[in-house]
Amino acid sequence: MWDESSGGARQLITSGYLKASHRELDEERTSEGNPYHPHTRTVPVEPGKIEEYVLRLYPFAATFKAGHRLVVEVSNNEPLADAHNALLPPDAFHLPVGRPVTHKIYRDAAHPSRLVLPFTTVTKA
Questions:
Q1: Looking at the chain, which runs of residues are DSSP E strands?
Q2: Does the structure show a pLDDT above 60 at 93?
Q3: Which of 1, 35, 73, 94 is 20 to 30 A from 117, alpha carbon to alpha carbon?
């Protein structure tokens, strides 16, 4: 997730990762905006089958300036270590599969997507 200025400059805010075969949720430990994946077994991904994937974003705090926008970027590839992600926790990365994959994201009335974030506003005194 990025904070993007009106001029196009971007600053990484946070990220989240999930291996598709580890999408299983522990419903008792999951809460709104904080999914819990036990990673105790793999659930094969069936090609062509529509599945829901719930990702946890690493906690963050940011102030967004007027004219900036929040940009969500979805990728099926692990980024290399660089200035944007060098400070992420060590469990932030997963071993890549090592073969090409294709994902189709459905965004329609039958398949809504959403982003749950705890926003607060700051008022000037």
A1: 2-4, 10-12, 69-71
A2: no
A3: 94
